Amino acid sequence: MNKNKLKTITNLFEGNEIRSVWDSQKEDYYFSVIDVITILTNSERPRKYWNDLKLKLKKEGSQLSEEIGQLKMKSQKDGKNYLTDVLDTKGIFRLIESVPSPKAEPFKVWLAQLGKERIDEVFDPEKAIHRGIEYYINHGCSLDWIERRLKAILDRNKLTKVWKENGINKDYEYGILTNEIYKVWF
User: Fold this and answer.
1) Whole-number percent of the chain with pLDDT over 90
2) Is the N or the C terminus of the chain less surrounded, counting Cβ atoms within 10 Å?
3) pTM of the full predicted structure?
């Protein structure tokens, strides 16, 4: 995974450090399980806690342990690289949901709220559009810019639909056509 960029996430857990790696091919982060367990449980033996939790989850039928990978990460103790259990973003949230800890509770409440919002959007897709507009406004975008951005997204979707109807179905083919458009445009 030499294309990965090592990233350190801070301020996620009250300023504590969570080691992570970005996988550019899968476009997702992989987080150190031990770091998350350490912060959520304040356990003196986070590896033992994690091993016990894995066994408990497996008995309960959880497939989380099947999603665990291992990546070399720099140890916070001696600075050397060791294989470390990691989970992707979805997996780390599932882990947080499984840890009985007061420190995990705010994340569980937040995840429940996100889940509710997404379910609401399934029944009323307009809510998703309003959420997107609100996000742009909160980041300082003007209403004119937002309108142009939404129109550009719709136009891009129309264009890719036409391409797909005409036999374009591989990512690199979309990339080639997009590059040709940009060459003419610029």
Assistant:
1) 40
2) C
3) 0.67
